[in-house]
Amino acid sequence: MRILAIESSCDESAAAVYETGRGLLAHEVFSQIDLHQIYGGVVPELASRDHVQRLLPIVERVLASAAGDNSSAKIEGIAYTAGPGLIGALLTGAALARSLAHAWGVPAIGVHHLEGHLLAPLLEPEPPPYPHVALLVSGGHTMLIECAGIGRYRLLGETRDDAAGEAFDKSAKLLGLPYPGGPHLARLAERGRANRHEFPRPMLDRPGLEFSFSGLKTAVLHAVRALPAEAIDQQRADIAHALQEAVVDTLVAKSLRAMSATGLDALVVSGGVSANRRLRERLDAAAARVGVRVYYPRLEFCTDNAAMIAVAGEARLSAGERDEVGIPARAQWPLDTLRPPGQQREAGYREQVKQEF
C-alpha cells in the first residue's frame, strides 16, 4: 500500500510518501522558525495561514519525487495528523488530506501525533522490538510509556506541569537566546563549567515515574536575576550547563527506574528533545551498565515530520481503518485511548470529534 502523509500540528509543514514493504520513498519538512522568531514563540494564527500556503506545494513535490521511483504506483490512502496540536494548524492539514482522499477516491485516516513520535524509530534499519518502554520528550510532552505493540500503550508517568522541552525553551528565553531556544541552549551549555550552579532534580527524591520541570524554570530565573549587569557569555553558559545537567539527570534516572519497574530491556527515546546530544550520551552510558539497549530516530525524525505519520497511518490503513467523519481534528487527544490497528477506536470517539468540529 502506498500512502501520502501530511503533518501540520504546530509550526512544521510536512508531507511524505511511504509504501508497505519498501519504506519511506520521499519526504519534506518546512519549518516556520523564521516566521515566529520575532515573537519568541509560535503564533497559532500565523502558523495556520502559513500551512495553507506551504502544504500543497510540498505535497506536489513529494508526490513527484516518489513517482520518479515508480511512476505506475498510485496513492492508495492518506494519513494526516488529527491531534493533538494547535486546532487551526491541524485543520489545515486535515482539510487538505480529506479533500485529496475524496477527489482520488481513496481512504484517509487521522493519526495521533504522539503515536507518530513513538513509531519514528521504526524508520531505522534496526527498529526496536516489542515490548519496550518509550521516553517521549518534547516541547509539549514528557512521558514514559510501556509499549506492547502499535496501539497498545500504557502510560507509566508524565509531567505534572511543564515538559522538559518547555523548560529548555523558556530558560533559553531568560538567557536571551533566540527562538527556538532548546538547540541554542544545548550549544551554549557545551561551553559551561560544572558545579557553578546547583539546580534541583525534581521528584527524584520520591518514588514513581512522574516528572515536574516548572521548578527548574524558577531556579534559572533566580540565577539569571543574580547575574551582574555586565554578565559575560561564560556566566550564561554556566547556567545553561547546570540546567541541561539537571534535566538530563532527571530523564535518565526516571527512564532507568521505568526499565526496572517493567523488567524490559529495550528503551525508545523520541520527540524533539531526543536530539539532545548530552541526553543521548548519558542515556547510552547508563543503559549499557544495566543491560538496556536504547533506540532513537535519526535526528531529522526527532522533530515533527510526516514520515512518522506515514508509518502510523500505514499500519492503520493496512488493517482496514478508515475515517468516515468530515474533517476530524482534536487539540487534545489522550494517547491511552488508542487501540491496536484494525480495532474500533474508543467508545464515543467519532461522536466527540463531530462535536469538537
In short:
The protein is an alpha/beta fold and 357 residues long. It has eleven helices and ten strands. The longest helix is centred in the C-terminal third of the chain and has 30 residues, at 233-262.
Q: In words, what does this structure look like?
A:
- β7 and β8 form a beta hairpin.
- By secondary structure, this protein is an alpha/beta fold.
- The strands form 2 sheets. The chain has a 5-stranded mixed beta sheet with strand order 3-2-1-4-5, sandwiched between helices.
- It folds into 2 domains: 2-119 and 304-356, ATPase, nucleotide binding domain (Nucleotidyltransferase, domain 5), CATH 3.30.420; 130-296, ATPase, nucleotide binding domain (Nucleotidyltransferase, domain 5), CATH 3.30.420.
- The longest helix has 30 residues, at 233-262.
- The model is unreliable at 346-351 and 353-357 (pLDDT under 50).
- It has helices at residues 33-37, 44-69, 87-104, 113-119, 164-174, 181-189, 214-225, 233-262, 277-289, 306-318, 349-356; strands at 2-7, 12-19, 23-31, 77-83, 108-112, 132-137, 142-149, 152-158, 266-270, 293-295.
- The radius of gyration is 21 Å and the shape is globular.
- It is built from 11 helices and 10 strands.
